[in-house]
Design a protein that fits this description.
Two copies of one chain form a homodimer. Chain A has about 500 residues and is an alpha/beta fold. Chain A contains 18 helices and 19 strands. Chain A is about 40% helix and about 20% strand.
């Protein structure tokens, strides 16, 4: 390590998940140590250290020759005052990269190896490209079931864990891929109204047109501190907030920040990601929703069953009571796709509006019913009717309003969609035999969702509906002219619907 | 795209191979477009654009609210003046990432797909993690031989090509892994003295204790502009400079900047890397050196043969006259490991010093002989003796001095090794039966090579030498106390030598 001291300086640059250090090109330490721009260095101060990627500076107003600058995240992590003495040296590559290279060669890794990888990732010893190497390697040869267990456990053990001091803490999770599938916003108030603890946090959309957190944001604040969250959950038995502020299974967030932009997705990583987060959040009982359909993430029943077994295996080993439901993923759920339109659907169901989308209502009641049956005092088979009573009686909407108030109600409520819109109409008489989940999600995103909350798609026709030539199938809403035009071009290319005969509709092999 | 204009500003931060853009957090474009730190954006000015990773700034002395800052590389690439108007928008992911995902799923790619990947990488559309995904995917399932050809061609076609306007342009390349293997510094002067054109450029060490460019830097400047290089090559028929300034097969440099830190290595990538560079450099005839040994990159003869065939297949398809020699890679070549010690060995051979290491001399003569036989006027089998005549007569050292003078001779010549040193001695009587290439390279690196040019290892004993208990096997030189100590600890752990009986020495199956 260089014995020369540098003076710590905070550089007002936000580099998100990546620590960056700044050294002046004429700094003697930079020259002596033979650092290169983008190489990884260790910065030590008073026995503590952080790792950062080096940027070389030619401007003394950013850092002077005797200073070491840190980006905001790195500065916060080192947790020292500006002006203190720091020393720097080359960071050695993470030891666990040996295990990653083993995986690249197709070998099986042990729990200890997965743990060392997870630990090094949490400690910021991995660059994004090292994480990408791990993800591609473990996605490609696909992990065997013991490895999925090891990875899940490693991701769980390298983060904090919540303890609610209750025997029954329930949660639900859908593996995703179905637009408009906002059941959590119904399930949480119903289950919490039944008195069960459901401390569910949600994500924002990354590749989809809306996440539960984006839709909930039409009604209430979702960006809460861990303390606020804790208080709301104790008071209301449930919440509908963004989960990004907690430090549960932190490896997962880091891996997702690489996995999503790469557009890669592996079964083993998905299961480890879901289960490590839920276990860390202190859940004792978990319901997993796997939608199956020709344009869903899971396209065949055999695939859904093998995924179910993998979930069950890992869940059983890690001592969580886990149940999997395989649901109908042939088309979007509800009518709206995009934050405002989805919020409208949800509130229609909660408020028992006769126009409420029946599929969203039914699916939510089924899921809530299964969660309620985790309650030992509820007789098997009674969950659904308890859930329905809670919804019909107005207790669900009452609980939803209480949660909204606790999180911070928005001043005005409006689900009005973007003022620029066009309708996509059927080119023939017939029956809707296919709605492409991927294309509908793509249209909603191109129209501006989730960034523009009022952009999205409103479906007028669903599978099995009869249509006449020229009759509108759905309406696309946008807020900006350019988005409107992009969405229109996309629809001209592929409307995402197929019209045919009723007997061409693919059969759903699932209960709900 | 945002229609709002920002003012371009150059930010004095060097971010090496990665373009970075800086926007103030309160900049209206940043807010309206929903950018995130580390997301990729496009910066447009007067019909041109660059791609960059976004950093968010909280300090108006770096960028003001109406400014867009670019790091030095990005600013240079955009090639516009400070103060001009720029617009920004989200960068779409590179289209060719679809092909990368196909490869991750184990599919075979076409030439068009490899070309689109190479083109997007050259155009800076790939982040480091996307390149890592491509490298791991194509390393893991391993490319078939047509794919190696496609990748090589794609890497070649996306860069510039040199044309020397001569029928015979020779080059040599070793796949690496053997410490002290500085044959290029002998082969180039011998072959150039014979009058053949050998425009060889060399790399610096990335994971080894010294590259040819590092060792040559003990004698002359190696960091030359493409124009200087061109002039020297025309004048001297050869050179020994660093190749980093040319734009030959630029994809290769970008991939290597990811591959090396990850420590991954695949056959297909290696062949594409070597051949695309050599073809771009205008070589018509190429000699490839594959050392084989228990601690070399290639450990078995069958592996060396299959690698040879792959080189030959791709070379033949791309119209380069290629020959492969399989050489003895059981131990380091010469005595010194590290820039100063290797330069000493090389000059001893060139100056016909009776103490010159015979193995370095013999290997260099063999390789130079093979290259000389590419000359149609040389009778088959005569190359070696022509090479030896050139070396023995002093014409080789004369040519070397001319090259050194042309590149820029260092004022003082000294091969003295680092003043801190210790000897590692044999613990028993016997014969040296193994010298671990990897461990010896590791010791030299830990001692400070190649950064500290006088650090390294000096071997006193080689395979087959008899030793007495307590007799020194090698000496480790360092320049700094801490490095000295680290190297000592490493040697205590594993000296890298094994002593036994002469009949335990692994047989070399190769000619030289």
């Amino acid at each position: 390590m260089s014995t020369e001291n540098l003076t710590l300086r905070r550089v007002g640059i936000d580099t998100y998940h990546e620590n960056v250090a700044y050294l002046h090109r004429d700094c003697s330490v930079y020259r002596a140590e033979g650092f290169q721009a983008l190489s990884k260095i260790e910065i030590h101060a008073n026995g503590l250290y952080v790792l950062a990627v080096l940027n070389v500076v030619d401007d003394e107003s950013i850092v002077k020759r005797n200073e070491l600058g840190l980006s905001e995240q790195a500065f916060k992590q080192l947790d020292e005052k500006e002006g203190c003495n720091v020393q720097v040296n080359h960071a050695e590559p993470a030891d666990s990269m040996d295990a990653v290279r083993k995986k690249i060669n197709g070998e099986r890794l042990t729990y200890e190896e997965y743990y060392s990888i997870a630990k090094d990732i949490v400690d910021n010893r991995y660059s994004k490209m090292e994480m990408a190497a791990f993800l591609v390697a473990s996605g490609q040869t696909s992990l065997d079931r013991d490895e999925v267990l090891y990875l899940t456990k490693a991701m769980l053990e390298t983060g904090e864990k919540l303890d609610w001091k209750e025997a029954l803490v329930v949660d639900k999770h859908c593996i995703g891929g179905i637009p408009g599938n906002r059941t959590s916003m119904l399930v949480v108030p119903i289950v919490a109204a039944h008195g069960m603890l459901i401390p569910k946090t949600s994500s924002r959309a990354i590749t989809s047109p809306s996440g539960t957190a984006d839709t909930m944001e039409m009604l209430a604040k979702v960006n809460l501190t861990p303390n606020q969250l804790n208080e709301i959950i104790h008071q209301e038995r449930g919440c509908l907030a963004w989960g990004g502020t907690a430090k549960l299974a932190p490896v997962d967030d880091k891996l997702i920040s690489v996995e999503r932009p790469l557009g890669i997705d592996s079964r083993g990583q998905m299961i480890a990601s879901i289960l490590s987060k839920k276990l860390a959040a202190g859940s004792s009982h978990l319901l997993i929703d796997i939608p199956v359909g020709p344009t869903a993430k899971v396209r065949h029943m055999r695939e859904a069953l093998s995924l179910r077994k993998l979930f069950e295996f890992v869940g059983d080993q890690l001592n969580i009571h886990l149940e999997v439901v395989i649901t109908d993923g042939r088309q979007p759920i509800g009518r709206g796709i995009g934050p405002a339109l989805e919020a409208r659907d949800v509130m229609q169901v909660l408020e028992n509006d006769p126009n409420a989308p029946e599929d969203l209502r039914q699916k939510s009641l089924q899921l809530a019913g299964r969660l309620i049956e985790f309650d030992p005092d509820v007789r098997g088979g009674q969950g659904y009717s308890i859930a329905r009573d809670i919804l019909d009686s107005g207790r669900a909407v009452g609980k939803m309003n209480a949660i909204i108030d606790a999180q911070g109600r928005l001043e005005t409520r409006s689900f009005e969609a973007g003022k620029l819109y066009f309708d996509v109409c059927s080119k023939e008489d017939g029956t809707v035999i296919e709605i492409d989940n991927l294309q509908m999600a793509h249209i909603a995103r191109i129209a501006g969702a989730p960034m523009d909350k009022r952009a999205g798609v409103d479906l007028f026709k669903k599978l099995g509906d009869n249509v006449k030539k020229g009759e509108p199938l759905y309406r696309v809403h946008a807020e900006f002219n350019s988005d409107y035009q992009f969405a229109k071009n996309l629809c001209n290319n592929n409307i995402g619907y197929r019209i045919g005969h009723a007997d061409q509709i693919p059969t759903s092999f699932v209960a709900f």
